[in-house]
From TrEMBL:
<comment type="similarity">
    <text>Belongs to the glycosyl hydrolase 3 family.</text>
</comment>
<dbReference type="InterPro" id="IPR013783">
    <property type="entry name" value="Ig-like_fold"/>
</dbReference>
<dbReference type="InterPro" id="IPR002772">
    <property type="entry name" value="Glyco_hydro_3_C"/>
</dbReference>
<dbReference type="InterPro" id="IPR050288">
    <property type="entry name" value="Cellulose_deg_GH3"/>
</dbReference>
<keyword id="KW-0326">Glycosidase</keyword>
<dbReference type="Pfam" id="PF14310">
    <property type="entry name" value="Fn3-like"/>
</dbReference>
<protein>
    <submittedName>
        <fullName>Thermostable beta-glucosidase B</fullName>
        <ecNumber>3.2.1.21</ecNumber>
    </submittedName>
</protein>
<dbReference type="Pfam" id="PF00933">
    <property type="entry name" value="Glyco_hydro_3"/>
</dbReference>
<dbReference type="GO" id="GO:0008422">
    <property type="term" value="F:beta-glucosidase activity"/>
</dbReference>
<keyword id="KW-0119">Carbohydrate metabolism</keyword>
<dbReference type="InterPro" id="IPR001764">
    <property type="entry name" value="Glyco_hydro_3_N"/>
</dbReference>
<dbReference type="InterPro" id="IPR026891">
    <property type="entry name" value="Fn3-like"/>
</dbReference>
<dbReference type="Pfam" id="PF01915">
    <property type="entry name" value="Glyco_hydro_3_C"/>
</dbReference>
<dbReference type="InterPro" id="IPR019800">
    <property type="entry name" value="Glyco_hydro_3_AS"/>
</dbReference>
<feature type="domain" description="Fibronectin type III-like">
    <location>
        <begin position="590"/>
        <end position="660"/>
    </location>
</feature>
<dbReference type="InterPro" id="IPR017853">
    <property type="entry name" value="GH"/>
</dbReference>
<dbReference type="InterPro" id="IPR036962">
    <property type="entry name" value="Glyco_hydro_3_N_sf"/>
</dbReference>
Length: 760
């Protein structure tokens, strides 16, 4: 890979003090579909931003928003669904760097990605572009990718901010989500990337969040993004996401894309002249655009031409690390030498390697799995049958019969199943998670004649696997990019030992999934009714059986885990240590996962949440200590009443696991919580007052004095009734009703003033 020195990179500041209001306003919208405007006389250039995320989609001619129309050939790496499954941050960094190199060669200042939206429902048409149902996996993997790209001087665009978890009605729909899931699930991944990697840009999404367009939401774009997380870059709109340009600018949206033909620039100028928009707001956004552009101007470009072979090799390596071995009964895989293989299914010749929409790359080449398997196994041992068509054309019975005959003649049948391209795409969602019936029928027929059948899946998001118990070996191949064919051959034949694990649960039925009753919403609103319980958090809480759990993935070797130990360090982070041993007979990689829980929590919390992970590479028989860090901040929940993060104290369980349902060693750690003293009001319940360090003892004493007066009342209560508990929800402001003059309104107010003064 090319070495890049960007230490002396470009102008770090850009002044807009000498620009006219018109010039400043003009900087804040695009010149064309992919280019920003410059101001020539001030030396501010026009720069290009283009898709993303898993390859460069740079169009040569005029804009063709969602198409692939004539974009320069570029390496199509596995989309996030694949890369995420590697759980390998070093690999994500290398992919990011390669994306940066390709962008730099093509003079692209910002590549539009990565996408870190949470896979709320398996139905979302764009799940293939996102990493996970879990915010830690999403955030950690995306941060590594961003750092990789930006190490080349090319910027990234973290998207789609925020709560954009479906395609249905995406330009209008309001994602109605409560504060805790918003913070703990939907924003957490974005926060991680912003805080750890400072992407040059963040792209706001099309949708509304709790009724407000993301493009004009000051809460999201300014308070959360800049004030809380310290974002220093530029906020760009998704293409066409601006509803009201002046409100958007005021809310914190710096750059409208694509071009508005100057119409909305004039609206900004008018608003400033009319006094309804402060010119300093325009200055700030114009300066950010100018900074992005001048920084790019001063960044050394990577010299071309692109090393197509090296990037293809990287794409193959990544694809191999993206394939999840879901099942491998009897060690059917890797394929043993001298066994004949029938490759069955339309995907053999028509690989599905990326998803549809704005992320479609024009690949530099495409591997053929049939050719790659033949190279390894020997041409005479490999044969092929189509089995079915992807568009439903042709004689299904005849195609099936031909494939079944071939399966019967060969030692092993490898059946390639998956979703046709049209089944999932940007712009619309799926309606079910089933594979086409023609494919399932074919598989059943093959299984009748050959028990040594392997299924290889191609799909951008999970599909139901009704055959999971009947098939010996299953490879989840997701969408693997242009080198997917080679990578599948590498895994089938054992040249690559699979190490990927699921970043999304494979449910038994769509009906089991968390958002089933709340997706995709109606009347312009989608209610995130499952709250915090997204993905495995839901299946675990409801004790729902799944086909394969979050975090699951096998290897051709096996791993043993020692006893985990956890301790709190000086910085408050929790350090987890465990010895992992490769107990099999070949080298392999294991993704070690750490989940925490707090059974004594005061608030609703999932039983187990992923907080850290690490990849360890071990030779056969080798042992190594793996050290993982759970950040204290990641233990926090969002405290709704005080609008801030709070780490609750207590004994946390720490599960070290091979998957969310394969816990290998559990321990506990005592965490000291944040001090949280809620201000007391007349509305505060007696339980809250009792718990208060100042007011508690006073009121308890007063209540004890009252006890004798209440004896008569207490005597009619059944024995054992806890009066304090019974009265726990009684507001202190109304205690006078019971306590009489001893705690009348005046005394209560005095008490509250004293408590709040002391607690402040
Ligand atoms: C997509 C973005 C993409 C942009 C530019 C939008 O429709 O949502 O992800 O980057 O178009 O193609």
């Amino acid at each position: 890979m090319t070495d890049i020195d960007i230490t002396n990179q470009g102008a770090a500041t850009a002044s807009v003090a000498d620009l006219t209001l018109e010039e400043k306003a003009s900087l804040t919208s695009g010149a064309s579909f992919w280019w920003t405007k410059g101001v020539e006389r001030a030396g501010i250039p026009s720069v290009m931003l283009t898709d993303g995320p898993h390859g460069l989609r740079k169009q040569r001619g005029s804009a063709d928003h969602l198409g692939i129309g004539d974009s320069v050939p570029a390496t199509c790496f596995p989309p996030a669904v694949g890369l995420g499954s590697s759980w390998d941050t070093a690999l994500a960094h290398r992919v990011g760097e390669a994306l940066g190199v390709e962008s730099s060669i093509e003079d692209v200042a910002v590549i539009l990605g990565p996408g870190v939206n949470i896979k709320r429902s398996p139905l979302c048409g764009r799940n293939f572009e996102y990493f996970s149902e879990d915010p830690i996996v999403s955030g950690v993997m995306a941060a590594a990718l961003v750092r990789g790209t930006q190490s080349t001087g090319v910027g990234t665009s973290l998207k789609h901010f925020a709560a954009n978890n479906q395609e249905h009605d995406r330009m209008r729909s309001s994602s109605d989500v409560d504060p805790r899931p918003l913070r703990e699930i939907y924003l957490r991944g974005f926060q991680r990337v912003v805080e750890d990697a400072q992407p040059y840009t963040v792209m706001c999404s099309y949708n509304r969040v709790n009724g407000v367009f993301a493009s004009e939401d000051p809460f999201l774009l300014t308070r959360v993004l800049r004030d809380e997380w310290g974002f220093e870059g530029l906020v760009v709109s998704d293409w066409g996401a601006v509803n009201d340009r002046v409100s958007a600018l005021a809310a914190g949206l710096d750059l409208e894309m694509p071009s508005s033909g100057g119409a909305t620039d004039a609206q900004i100028v008018d608003a400033v002249r009319a006094g309804s928009l402060d010119e300093s707001v325009v200055d700030a956004s114009a300066a950010r655009v100018a900074h992005l552009a001048t920084r790019w101007q001063g960044t050394p470009r990577v010299a071309g031409p692109l090393d197509v072979d090296a990037h293809h090799a990287l794409a193959r390596e990544v694809a191999g690390r993206s394939i999840v071995l879901l099942k491998n009964d009897g060690g059917l895989l890797p394929l043993r030498a001298e066994r004949s293989v029938a490759l069955i299914g339309a995907f053999v010749d028509q690989p599905r390697y990326q998803g549809a929409g704005s992320s479609m790359i024009n690949p530099t080449r495409i591997d053929s799995v049939a050719r790659e398997v033949a190279i390894k196994v020997g041409e005479d041992l490999v044969s092929q049958a189509q089995g079915f068509t992807l568009d439903g054309s042709g004689d299904a019975a005849a195609l099936r019969a031909e494939a079944v005959a071939l399966a019967a003649e060969n030692d092993v049948a490898v059946v390639f199943l998956g979703l046709p391209a049209a089944a999932e795409s940007e712009g619309y969602d799926r309606e079910h998670i089933d594979l086409p019936a023609v494919q399932l029928e074919l598989l059943d027929a093959v299984l009748e004649v050959n028990p040594d059948t392997v299924v290889v899946l191609s799909n951008g998001s999970v599909v139901a696997l009704p055959f999971a118990d009947d098939v010996s070996a299953i490879l989840e191949g997701w969408l693997l990019g242009q080198a997917g064919g080679g990578a599948i051959a590498d895994v089938l034949c054992g040249d690559v030992n699979p190490s990927a694990k699921l970043t999304e649960t494979i449910p038994v039925r769509l009906e089991d999934s968390p958002a089933f009753l709340n997706f995709p919403g109606e009347d312009g609103h989608v209610r995130y009714g499952e709250g915090l319980f997204v993905g495995y958090r839901w299946y675990d809480a409801r004790k729902i059986e799944v086909t394969f759990p979050f975090g699951h993935g096998l290897s051709y070797t096996t791993f043993g885990y020692g006893d985990a130990a956890a301790s709190v360090g000086a910085d408050g982070d929790v350090e987890v240590r465990v010895i992992v041993t490769n107990t099999g007979d070949r080298a392999g990689r294991e993704v070690v996962q750490v989940y925490t829980g707090l059974a004594s929590a005061d608030v609703q919390r999932p039983e187990r949440e992923l907080k850290a992970f690490a990849l360890v590479e071990l030779e056969a028989g080798e042992s190594r200590e793996v050290v993982l860090t759970v950040r204290r901040a990641d233990l926090a929940y969002w405290h709704v009443r005080t609008d801030r993060w709070v780490v609750e104290g207590g004994e946390y369980t720490v599960d070290v696991a091979a998957s969310s349902r394969d816990l290998r060693s559990s321990t506990t750690v005592e965490v000291v919580g944040d001090t949280l003293v809620l201000p007391l009001t007349r509305e505060s319940s007696l339980a809250e007052v009792f718990a208060h360090p100042v007011a508690g003892p006073i009121v308890q004493q007063a209540m004890a004095q009252m006890a004798s007066a209440m004896e008569g009342a207490a005597s009619i209560m059944p024995e054992g009734v806890d009066m304090a508990k019974m009265m726990g929800s009684f507001p202190i402001g109304r205690i006078g009703m019971i306590a009489g003059d001893s705690l009348g309104p005046e005394q209560v107010d005095q008490l509250l003033a004293m408590a709040n003064g002391a607690g402040a």
